[in-house]
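Next comes this protein:
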Amino acid sequence: MKSALILYIGVLALTIGVVLGEVKPPRVYVYTRYPMKFGEPNELICHCTDFHPPRIDIKLKHDRIEYENCQKTDMTFKEDWAYYQTASVPFTPKEGVKYSCDVSHNEGPMKSYVLDTSM
């Protein structure tokens, strides 16, 4: 009985160590709340999901200028300890402007994800 308990605790500790030690980069989606039409108010959204550990920096930008009034949801995790967070900002899209979501995970380099305005 005692050796079974020790084995169980060892396996549990190993499982937690593997799950918490794994680095998973985020999957990033950049989109708008409504179908995009230039000159009409909308919302720019950046959804980052399935990342671990829970260290992430999300910045919404237009022509490389950061939006000041960006809102972020609370960071939440799933059953597998993968985290997700969403950032959004109201905006009125203009033709010729590049809209992006810059993401840094686990203190790594910023990666830029661009909104496809051709839709």
Remarks:
- The chain has one helix and nine strands.
